[in-house]
Automatic annotation (TrEMBL):
Main EC class the enzyme belongs to: oxidoreductase
Domain of life: Bacteria
Catalysed reaction equations from the record: 2 H2O2 = O2 + 2 H2O
GO molecular function, one term: catalase activity
UniProt protein name: Catalase
Protein family membership: Belongs to the catalase family.
PANTHER family, per the entry: CATALASE, CATALASE-2
TM region(s), chain numbering: none
InterPro entries assigned to the protein according to its UniProt record, in alphabetical order: Catalase (IPR018028), Catalase_AS (IPR024708), Catalase_clade1/3 (IPR024711), Catalase_core (IPR011614), Catalase_haem_BS (IPR002226), Catalase_immune_responsive (IPR010582), Catalase_sf (IPR020835)
Assigned EC number: 1.11.1.6
Function text: Decomposes hydrogen peroxide into water and oxygen; serves to protect cells from the toxic effects of hydrogen peroxide.
Length: 504
């Protein structure tokens, strides 16, 4: 071997040792990543160019199904720092002592449109936070608005179908979703909030968040307190009017993702304070609404906000697919000290998220780095596609429990709480206190004159696109029942007179 060949071989080897050599999927060095292996210079290309074939095959499979809702989103990482000792109410690890820090992953999102859709849409915004605690991952999978359109999960697929683009024209159509909502009076409250300027946040940093549902906090004595979470932005709430949103869309419709990223990059770390509202189980029935109805706000003058900590986002994802697209949040990712409430919408969600993750990310999605609990997972749920942890046990042949050979045990202190039931009938009924309009009216009345005008204008704009007079009249009637002035203004804007409503 000549001196030159030797030194060339040496420099390739040292590049290799530095770990910078391009490899095939199976780890072998790649000789040429620019030219396929061909018969002569002009081809055809040989099937035996395995590197080429595997490269194309990997590309062909790059996309996984997008989230069926909340497909467009942006993520960031940081920490939650407790400012209160809430151990009298919950054993939940992040809330035990002031100063305690828990790492978090956060994903903000829009709801209805696809993965690459504009961030200027009037749409609720998702506000999902994963706490990596020492007792497991805890997710608060909330939205920016504190209430929801419906109170029972059985309506969710129909509602989403009506809001998504038409199966015929592939275009979102107010005629379809108002057709649905005209038959769902409990949606009036959420629609009143959504069509106010709160419906288009100026950026993810500028919105509050809410768990929407009540959850059960459980203390070390098994005592239950119902809680609802609220995140309050320290950046101040900022929204776009419809005109500002249109102008933003003309300039840059990915502004929310971009601004979250650039603020963090510049060291302007966004922060939110976390509050809880608490209701004891015997006080649940003392309101003119049912607090476990997701269409209802918990009024702060009756159920005060208690601050429990602050969240700071200080790290951007390095790889969007691995750290954001692969994030899997679920309202069922709970830890000791938090249990689901009886809220009928929440109960359906407890199934839906774990189920969709298995479909979207595969059965072992919890082994993806960003979803992995901080502490080792110890159980015998195993195998299936991409299983990576079947050999970690001291007796690999014992994949059952109980066994005389392994010390894998339950922790009785963390059994689910007991709930006593009396005089219960299993049924399929609406809740008794539907009270569908009062809070919508209160929200409208509390708006400034200018904000009321924006709400009326925004609603008029979309209702004017509804071709059915019947649907328009039904929607006006719901808003009229919430607030007379709101209903009258919409009726007038849409060209209806009193006589048109005689039958309603
Ligand atoms: C995402 C179902 C109501 C907040 C999702 C996903 C599904 C789903 C299937 C996609 C999850 C994924 O692919 O990872 C449902 C059902 C509901 C419901 C069945 C009612 C029965 C709600 C409510 C809220 C909410 C009331 C707010 C409190 C979110 C958020 C995400 C999401 C924030 C995105 C999570 C992320 O960033 O990965 N929902 N949802 N959903 N949902 Fe719901």
């Amino acid at each position: 071997m000549s001196k030159i060949t030797l030194s060339l071989a040496f420099s390739f080897l040292s590049l290799w040792a530095l770990g910078q050599g391009l490899t095939t999927n199976t780890g072998a060095p790649v000789g040429d990543n620019q030219n396929s292996k061909t018969v002569g210079e002009n081809g055809p290309v040989l099937l035996e160019d395995i590197h080429l074939i595997e490269k194309l095959a990997a590309f062909d499979r790059e996309r996984i199904p997008e989230r069926v809702v909340h497909a467009r989103g942006a993520g960031a990482f940081g920490y939650f720092e407790a400012t209160a000792d809430m151990s009298a109410y919950t054993q939940a690890a992040p809330f035990q002592q002031p100063g305690k820090k828990t790492e978090v992953a956060v994903r903000f999102s829009t709801v209805i449109h696809g993965h690459g859709s504009p961030e200027t849409a009037r749409d609720p915004r998702g506000f999902a936070v994963k706490f990596y605690t020492e007792l497991g991952n805890y997710d608060i999978v909330g939205n920016n608005l504190p209430v929801f359109f419906i109170r029972d999960a059985i309506k969710f697929p129909d509602m989403v179908h009506s809001l998504k683009p038409s199966p015929v024209t592939n275009k979102q159509d107010p005629g379809r979703f108002f057709d649905f909502f005209s038959n769902v009076p409990e949606a009036t409250h959420m629609l009143t909030r959504l069509y106010s300027d709160l419906g288009i946040p100026a950026g993810y940093q500028y919105m509050d968040g809410s768990s929407v549902h009540g959850f059960k906090w459980v203390n070390s004595q098994g005592k239950v307190t119902y809680v609802k979470y609220t995140w309050k932005t320290r950046q101040g709430v900022r929204n776009f009017t419809a005109e500002e949103a249109a102008a933003q869309q003309g300039k840059d419709w990915q502004h929310a993702t971009a601004a979250l990223r650039s603020d963090i990059e510049a060291g302007q770390y966004p922060q939110w304070d976390l509050y809880v509202q608490m209701i004891s189980p015997d006080a649940l029935d003392s309101f003119d609404f049912w607090p476990l109805d997701a269409t209802k706000h918990w009024p702060e003058d009756q159920i005060p906000l208690v601050k429990v900590g602050t969240m700071t986002l200080n790290r951007n994802p390095v790889n969007y697919f691995q750290e954001v697209e692969s994030l899997a949040f679920s309202p069922g990712s709970l830890i000791p000290g938090v249990e689901p409430s009886e809220d009928k919408l929440l109960q359906g969600r407890l199934f839906s998220y774990f189920d969709t993750h298995r479909h979207r990310l595969g059965p072992n999605y919890l082994q993806i780095e960003v979803n992995k609990p901080k502490e080792k997972v110890v159980n015998y749920n195993s195998d299936s596609y991409a299983s990576a942890r079947n050999d970690e046990f001291p007796h690999p042949d014992v994949n059952y429990q109980p066994s005389n050979y392994t010390p894998v045990q339950e922790t009785p202190a963390y059994k689910y709480t007991e709930t006593k039931l009396k005089d219960v009938t299993i049924t399929q009924k609406k809740i008794a206190k539907t009270n569908d309009y009062k809070q919508a009216g209160e929200f409208f009345k509390a708006l400034s004159k200018e904000d009321q005008e924006h709400l009326i204008r925004n609603l008029t704009g979309d209702l004017a696109m509804v071709t059915s007079k019947e649907v328009q009249k039904k929607m006006i009637t719901h808003f009229y029942r919430a607030d007379r002035k709101l209903g009258m203004a919409l009726a007038q804007n849409l060209g209806f007179g009193m006589k048109d409503f005689m039958s309603h």
